[in-house]
Amino acid sequence: MIRTKGEAGTGNVVEAVRHVRSVMGDIRALRNMDDDEVFSYAKRIAAPYDLVMQTKQLGRLPVVQFAAGGVATPADAALMMQLGCDGVFANEIR
């Protein structure tokens, strides 16, 4: 499980959105890399090559990605799902 995080308790979803967009942008870039570039990228981020290659092939993380922190309304939760999260964690929905 991967948790993307915004500012907890603020009700401000902006940081969570930035984080999810960053993760998804890196995955899009990964999809355009050839195998040698994937190997170099995996080495640069200190991640197992097989896991990075699987992410490239799937076009998404091969684990559940949750959003948390700053997600305060049903609209925030829907936005996070639309951006590619598999789930949303919220202590309180306003």
TrEMBL record:
Domain PdxS/SNZ N-terminal span(s) in chain numbering: 1-68
Single Gene Ontology BP annotation: amino acid metabolic process
EC number: 4.3.3.6
Domain of life: Eukaryota
Presence of keyword Lyase: yes
Reactions that this protein is recorded to catalyse: aldehydo-D-ribose 5-phosphate + D-glyceraldehyde 3-phosphate + L-glutamine = pyridoxal 5'-phosphate + L-glutamate + phosphate + 3 H2O + H(+)
Keywords: Lyase, Pyridoxal phosphate, Schiff base
Extent of the signal sequence: none
Pathway, per record: Cofactor biosynthesis; pyridoxal 5'-phosphate biosynthesis
PROSITE patterns: PDXS_SNZ_1, PDXS_SNZ_2
Single Gene Ontology MF annotation: pyridoxal 5'-phosphate synthase (glutamine hydrolysing) activity
Described purpose of this protein according to its UniProt entry: Catalyzes the formation of pyridoxal 5'-phosphate from ribose 5-phosphate (RBP), glyceraldehyde 3-phosphate (G3P) and ammonia. The ammonia is provided by PDX2. Can also use ribulose 5-phosphate and dihydroxyacetone phosphate as substrates, resulting from enzyme-catalyzed isomerization of RBP and G3P, respectively. Also plays an indirect role in resistance to singlet oxygen-generating photosensitizers.
Protein family (similarity comment): Belongs to the PdxS/SNZ family.
Protein name listed in UniProt: pyridoxal 5'-phosphate synthase (glutamine hydrolyzing)
Natural source organism: Oryza rufipogon (Brownbeard rice)
